[in-house]
Amino acid sequence: MIKGEVVLLLVVSFIFSCQKESDSNCLQKTFEVTATAYNSLAYQTSSNPNITAFGDSLIPGKRYIAVSRDLLDSGLIHNTEVKIEGFDSTFLVKDKMNRRWKKRIDLYMGIDVEKAKIWGKKKVNISYCISVKDTIN
After folding, report:
1. Which of 50, 87, 93, 123 is most deeply packed, by most CB within 10 A?
2. For the residues 78-106, what does the mean pLDDT come to?
3. Structural domain count of the chain
4. Does a structural domain hold residue 10?
5. Those residues with Cβ within 8 angstroms of residue 82's Cβ, 6 or more apart along the chain or in another chain
6. Exposure string (b/e) for 110-132, b if CB count within 10 Å is 16 or more?
7. The pTM is what?
8. Is 22 a member of any domain?
9. Is residue 54 part of a domain?
10. Which domain holds residue 67?
C-alpha cells in the first residue's frame, strides 16, 4: 500500500507543478474599457448580421464580445477568454469593431434590443491571459 501512496503523491505533485508552469507561461492583462452592447441585426452590424468580422457564426445566448482593434494589438485576439467585471463567467472574443472605436468592447446580446439598451454604456475592467510565447514572437 505504501508504494501506491507514493505513486499517488508523485502524480499529484506532477499535476500541480504542471499547473504552476502553465500559469507562469501566461501574462495576465487588465484594462478599463467602455462596454456597450450589440445585437445581430442588420441595422446594427451588416447585411449578414449573424457572421462576425472574424467569420464566426453568432449564436444567441452565448457569451461573446466584439473588441476595438487597438485591443487586438494588446493580445485580445480571436477566441480569447475574457473576464468582465460584474459577470461570473467568461466571454469569448468573436468579433471586432469598426476602427473608429478605442478601448471598447461590445457585449453580444442576440436579438434582444431591449436588453442591450438596458445595459447601455459603462466603464468596466476586463482581464485576460495571453501566452508568454505569443508576446515573444
Report:
1. 93
2. 96
3. 1
4. no
5. 65, 76, 90, 91, 92, 93, 105, 126, 127, 128
6. beeeeebeebeeeeeebebbbee
7. 0.76
8. no
9. yes
10. 27-136
Give the model's confidence band at 10: pLDDT under 50 very low, under 70 low, under 90 confident, else very high: very low
Whole-number percent of the chain with pLDDT over 90: 65
User: Which CATH number covers residue 43?
Assistant: 2.40.40.10
- 122, three cell numbers: 459603462
> Which residues, 6 or more positions from 96, have their beta carbon under 8 angstroms from its beta carbon?
52, 53, 54, 66, 67, 68, 69, 72
Rounded CA-CA distance 10/28 in Å is: 29
